[in-house]
Amino acid sequence: MTTDDRIATIDIVRGVAVCGILLMNITGMAMPEAAYENPRAWGGSDGINLVVWAINFVAIDGKMRGMFSFLFGASLLIVTDRAEANGESPARVHYRRMLWLFLIGLAHLWLVWWGDILHHYAMVGALAFLLRKLSIRLMSTLAVALILLQTAAYLPFVATISRAETMLATHPQDPEAIKTLDGLRDLMGVPNARDLARDIATHRAGYQVILADRWKETRNTPRDIFLGVGMETLAYMLLGMVGLRTGLLTGAWSARRYAVIAASCFAVSVPGYVALAWIDVASGFDMAAVALGSLAASAPLRPIMIIGWACLIVLLARPGGWLASRFAAAGRMAFTNYLASSLICTTIFYGYGLGWYGALHRAELLPIVAGVWGLMLAWSEPWLRRFQYGPAEWIWRSLARGQLQPLQRAAVQP
Fold first, then answer.
1. Which residues contact 13 (CB under 8 A, 6 or more apart)?
2. What is the pTM of this model?
3. Based on CB atoms within 10 Å of each CB, which residue in 22, 99, 153, 391 is the most buried?
4. CA 93 to CA 255: how far, in whole Å?
5. What confidence score (pLDDT) does residue 386 get?
6. β-pair partners for 257
7. Long-range Cβ contacts of 382-387 (<8 Å, 24+ apart)
8. Are the C-beta atoms of 162 and 286 separated by less than 8 Å?
9. What pLDDT does 22 receive?
10. Cβ atoms of residues 66 and 124 within 8 Å
11. C-alpha radius of gyration, the chain, whole number
12. What's the average model confidence in pLDDT over 96-101?
């Protein structure tokens, strides 16, 4: 399923992913950071808000980010294969792209929003390039090994929280346990009222105040994310390469094969995530349960659901149609749409815009998400009728090639 020199199924999957990832990202833009992992921190943890959290946790959280990583790996192969076919140096083409993606990602991280993922993709993509010639079997084996290593790396963190909580239950004044848990409340617990008030006041202030706070809080983010989830991200990129080579992402499989694999993946992953959500709720969202559900226990389940999502999207998109073409266009402009969603939402929530930070419950964010989705699907296709690339894609391409690239489509002669 191709259009021009592009693989339409990949664009459609990417379009769904760029829409889906906003369901999680908007929480990090609209509320204190801890609310992303723990609904008790902010935004409501009962009624409709709990339902929204549970659906996002089971179906969306980490899966859309992982799908982006899948597609990044597939795109890496497409770009480097094309460079080789054109007689260019694939290493030169790739690493220039990664350098500029890294710099754009840092600008997004420090100037717009703390949750940027682009710089991380650039860093991990630099490693993934070195593995692109492996056989499908070796790629798959290495990906599984990396996921298992990532799972193992999470376990000591969960154990540390669990030990501290157990110690406080019997020794409420234990200084080491108090110090351990206090240092993690802002990530996956319930921050104290003073810290929440300071965070809300900061994000409702002007741009200079927000910028100073973001630099203080995120100057080490590239290192921390790379060390924290780098193995998992590399595994997903390798699986994306496998998905391209085997035909999963190109629509080459039969409808029955896509349906069977999607059903099998969801049959394994959905019950697992439902069980983890139940543990979170039953524990009252204590930090050990949240860390187990979001990190250690999710790591082996997440790639299974991501593969299920990819198969389901390709299966549903195969007949084509108006909606598929809209998602494909949004996917072709995923870089632009990702950055644009950050600019729109931070302007809505931060003090230099409407200042709604911390003002809405979790469920009340959904109309804003739907509005941004509508913009993505409405503007991407008309833009691409006139121009070859989205604005951010054009800037990235021009920087990576060292010269301005043609943007406007040539007029079609009768």
1. 67, 71, 249, 310, 313, 314, 317, 331
2. 0.94
3. 22
4. 36
5. 95
6. none
7. 383/329, 383/333, 384/329, 384/332, 384/333, 385/409
8. no
9. 96
10. no
11. 22
12. 98
Distances (CA, A) of 107 to 125, 278, 366: 18, 38, 27
pLDDT at 48 over 90: yes
Whether the predicted pLDDT of 119 surpasses 90: yes
Distance CA 2, CA 327 (A): 14
| Residue 188 tokens, joined | 């996956």
CA–CA gap between residue 97 and residue 160 (Å, rounded): 39
Query: If pLDDT is split at 50, 70 and 90, which confidence band does 414 have?
Result: very low
Q: What is the secondary structure of 141-204 as a DSSP string?
A: HHHHHHHHHHHHHHHHHHHHHHHHHHHHHH-TT-HHHHHHHHTTHHHHS---HHHHHHHHHHHT
Neighbours of 164 (CB within 10 A): 22
Residue carrying structure tokens 């200079």: 208
Place of tokens 């299974």: 304
pLDDT at 1: 44
Residues 124 and 98 sit within 8 Å (Cβ to Cβ): no
Distance in angstroms (rounded) separating the CA atoms of residues 400 and 96: 5
| pLDDT(3) > 80 | no
Extract the tokens encoding 71: 């597609």
Q: Is the pLDDT of residue 175 over 90?
A: no
Distance CA 376, CA 378 (A): 6
Give the Å distances, CA to CA, from 37 to 97, 114, 288.
Answer: 32, 15, 12
Distances, alpha carbon 310 to alpha carbons 63, 258, 397, in Å: 10, 9, 27
Tokens read off for 35: 């609310």
Tokens of 112: 């717009």
pLDDT at 2 (0 to 100): 42
Question: How far is the C-alpha of 397 from the C-alpha of 380, rounded, in Å?
Answer: 18
pLDDT exceeding 70 applies to what percent of the chain? 98
Helix (H, G, I), strand (E, B) or coil at 387: strand
- Give the model's pLDDT for residue 4: 43
pLDDT at position 5 is 55
* Average pLDDT value over all residues in the chain: 94
- For residue 359, the SS3 value is coil
Label residue 413 by pLDDT band (50, 70, 90).
very low
Tokens of 42: 């902010």
Contact criterion met (CB below 8 Å) for 331 and 12: yes
Burial class (CB in 10 A: 0-12, 13-18, 19+), 299: buried
